[in-house]
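Hi team,

Below is the intake form for site-specific DNA-methyltransferase (adenine-specific) from Pyrobaculum arsenaticum. Please confirm the fields before the structure is written into the shared record.

FORM ID: S-0412
PROTEIN: site-specific DNA-methyltransferase (adenine-specific)
ORGANISM: Pyrobaculum arsenaticum
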Amino acid sequence: MGRRGLVADRGRVATPPDLAFYMVEKLFRGAPPGGGSRVLDAGCGLGVFIDAVLRWCRGRCAELPEVVGVEVDPALAEAARRRFAGERVRIVRGDFLLMSAGELGGLFDYVIGNPPYVSYEYIDPPKRELYKRLFTTAVGRFDLYMLFFEKALSLLKPGGRLVFVTPEKYLYVLSAVALRRLLASYRVEEVELIREDAFGGVLAYPAVTVVVKEAPSLTTIRLRDGRAARVALPRDGSPWLSAIATAKLRTPYSLGDLVLRISPGVATGRDDVFVIPKRALSKELEPFAYPTVGGRELSAFAPGSVVDYDKLAHVILIPYDRGGRLLDEGEAKPLLDYLSRWRRVLESRYAVRAEGKRWYAFHEDPPMGDLLRPKILWRDIAKEPAFYIDAKGLLIPKHTVYYLVPKDPGMLPRLAEYLNSAEAKRWLMEHCQRAANGYLRLQTHVLRQLPVPPEVVGEGHGLGRV
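The structure came back. Fields below:
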């Protein structure tokens, strides 16, 4: 990345591990790998992307895919082999641009990399002529990284995903007309101009490009100043910056900017004890009871609607005060008298045995101060995102239901409407991990990143970004 200091090492600059992991998250966004998946690291060096793939999978207890790294430098290839000995990783030494799919074991579901940035004048003349015969993108004063795009796409299965970090110059230089035309024939999911110091002391204006090998659609462009837009890229090879310049760029909030908390519901460790049918609630237990809802029951309501407590069949018994303090045995005597019949079961929980919690405490102490606020609810795993409103703030969700508490309660209806919009659903479908049968995992770290348009927030909101 960047020309300064690159000539001696054929344009190679090591990718920082944090950037590599960030790119792997984009690579697997909405389409996590399985045991039968194949991942290609084009120009692997010592294997920073391979390591990031393995860390990503292990961090999510996901089955490891087959990973193939290609490296032209014999010393680096051998070092990578030693580094990943015993892993499901194969390192192939050779010129990536001249390798066939057969030599690499077939086509790939994913390709990732930081191709070498070698400008035209530093490519050996015989190689230049060879590349011109082999690649449609080798026109004019082409750079080597441009050919990596074309080669990688040829090795990608239909529907496969490619993520490269390269100079941003291909967005506008004349020599990249053929490359832009090629890329625009597929779905360029995202182009993000990342910070100029992403590679430390190297002078670079890098872009992370995400391409899916399927029919074209709108592209998300993210600029360094935080503005973003969805644009239709020109298909004729003309500079993409013109499409960006005419787009309605905006600085969205992220959902994390607007909320006090995004969390899963309470974890009691024994819902079969603490959650009881509403019809079985005695007068003595009423002071400790709150309406509760699980994922299946929540789905009975229309998306965007206010949850009607009267239609809920269960309540949850809470041995905590409204500030989240565990009640002492005198304060909670009626509740503890009831719970005592299951005391042995409750004492067998890990939180009691290993963490020293009181026998009637929850597995995790509930943040009652946030829970008892107006909030938005959703299922943790769902075929399609759907969000619901707890307008009064008295509902205690079970652990299979996530919730968010907005900083401004007045924003609740607008925010719920946006979360159920086609725009938000599309973003979530693209970014959420997949569970079994293609269901979405609507997790905290993903929801926090969801862009929220300024018009949803409203004027004079007084909310600081976090």
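SUMMARY LINE: The first strand starts at residue 38 and ends at 42.

Thanks, M.
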